[in-house]
Amino acid sequence: QVQLVESGGELVQAGGSLRLSCAASGLSFSSYGMGWFRQAPGKEREFVAAISRSAYKNYADSVKGRFTISRDNSEQTVYLQMTTLKPDDTARYYCMIPDINTWGQGTQVTVSS
Fold this sequence. Notes:
11 strands, 51% strand, four-stranded antiparallel β-sheet
């Protein structure tokens, strides 16, 4: 059974940084691209970043230059390094595997002004 477990979300002040982690199990992690999405209260879930099997990276315009996605295949973990955080980044952050449409339970990020 494939599982994704996110961690690292917390309350942070605007301008601060956080690193989210997503640990995967039950699959050959290196064979899959991974993605991060987020959902703020009252808003639709939106794409944040993705990394392919070959570590090609793609970002939403709203986070380019501030967020960095990376992966450690030996740890079966994908990371989202977030810097210069803004109140608009407040959301629940989910990691997912596009090829098999599998999602984690999410981790809450709250950015105070």
